[in-house]
Description:
This protein has helices spanning about 30-40, 45-60, 60-70, 75-85, 105-115, 120-125, 130-140, 150-155, 175-195, 265-275, 320-330, 340-355, 355-365, 365-370; strands at about 10, 25, 200-215, 240-245, 250-260, 280-285, 305-310. Helices cover about 45% and strands about 10% of the residues.
Amino acid sequence: MGLARLEAGVIPVWGAQEFSMAIALRPDFDSLSLRLAARASDDPNQVRRLLALAAIYDGSTRREAAAIGGVTLQIVRDWVLKFNASGPEGLIDRKAPGKPSLLDGKHRSALAEIVESGPIPAIHGVVRWRIIDLCQWLWEEFQISVSKQTLSRELRAMNYRKLSARPRHHAQAAGAIEEFKKSSQPSWTPIAQSLGLNPNSIDVWFGDEARIGQKNKITRRWSRRGSRPSAPQDQCTASTYIFGAICPKRGQAVGLILPWCNTEAMNLHLEAIAAKIEPGRHAALLLDQAGWHLSADLVVPGNITIVPLPAKCPELNPQENVWQFMRDNWLSNRIFSSYENVVDHCSDAWNKLVDQPWTIMKLGLRKWAHGF
């Protein structure tokens, strides 16, 4: 017996010998609204399903709708059920939920705590956590067995990444950095008052020195995964010093290339900085507590006030970031043939920095120092 044409707008369910009760499409949509939704969609599968159901709204049979969608009658029925439950959004492919995680909130909290605190070498036998060590710890603490890949995904979902640690001096006083940041900006006002100046006329400068020589640095570089790139390195000992100072707010930099790092060289650098400061302005020059920075023989120009940074806190000095930037981009991975060649490359690198005030601002501006 041939198939009779089915009632428009409904999807029947096939039984063994007969139709079961048909499933009607929800009445708050029509053919036009589904076609407009299909036009606006970027999901080709959703578009195909919307057009198939729009045809049913227009009076097509479920077999014609299945032909439009390129699927079987049972799948068209599934589309109707999803559409009736969630509207057009129900016709979007969703990622399968997969197997539930073995870790719950208690496990993740304990994992975060152990990652933050780090391993105890005498107990855990390592000085840094590896994924395999954390897998072993989870088994010992909770009898949960997870693979390295699974735990890596869990840590990333908890916003943890494997990062290079920033050096911190072992003798740094606790809270020294935070205390200096709190008191630094208000200290510019007394400097201005003592000189009879407007506090807005104080420019914050950061100064430091870097030793550059033939025993050069090797930096990270892009390379194929699994390979080990190489870079030239020399064992000769010729070197020089860059005396550098930056004013991040104005994008200015003053530098000298000198053979020695002592009070006499520091006096020359202070003279160069003083010559760069505009008339009517004053520089608060932040320096670490190296001997040549605070020497009694230091001749400090009248338009400069030296502000010592807390001891053993190089993190407070953006000039350290400048040195890293210059090494990474202009000075590393090189062979210097002679002392003069070292000086030439240092001069060229510093002049490149001076020509990029936006780079000085990006590397040097600090909220605690500039109040932005």
